[in-house]
């Protein structure tokens, strides 16, 4: 479940980026590494913030995704939510 493509993307990164909450929940059952960073967006939590899916973000938080993990620019998920003006996501975080 933690297999990455050439861009460092796992199935979980892709599901989070697409806002596919049911798929995210299924993938979380396999206990993937939630701190894996891809080459562009960061961790699955960063991808969930980018997708603007509160359900995805909530599922990742409940699965204990690290809130202090950073992307390649040093941004946490909260930083990304602020930069993208994701107010609902900020309330979830």
TrEMBL record:
The keyword Protein transport does not apply. It comes from the Eukaryota. Keywords: ANK repeat, Repeat. It holds the Pfam family Ank_2. GO terms for molecular function: NF-kappaB binding. One of its GO terms (biological process) is cellular response to tumor necrosis factor. InterPro entries: Ankyrin_rpt, Ankyrin_rpt-contain_sf, NF-kappa-B_inhibitor. ANK repeats lie at residues 7-39, 40-72. One of its GO terms (cellular component) is cytosol. The keyword Repeat applies. This is Uncharacterized protein.
């Amino acid at each position: 479940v933690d297999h990455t493509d050439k861009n460092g993307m796992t199935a979980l990164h892709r599901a989070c980026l697409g806002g596919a909450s049911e798929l995210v929940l299924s993938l979380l059952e396999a206990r993937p590494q939630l701190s894996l960073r891809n080459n562009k967006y960061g961790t699955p939590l960063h991808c969930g913030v980018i997708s603007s899916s509160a359900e995805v973000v909530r599922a990742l938080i409940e699965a204990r995704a690290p809130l202090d993990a950073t992307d390649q620019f040093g941004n946490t998920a909260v930083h990304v939510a602020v930069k993208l003006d994701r107010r609902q996501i900020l309330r979830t975080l």
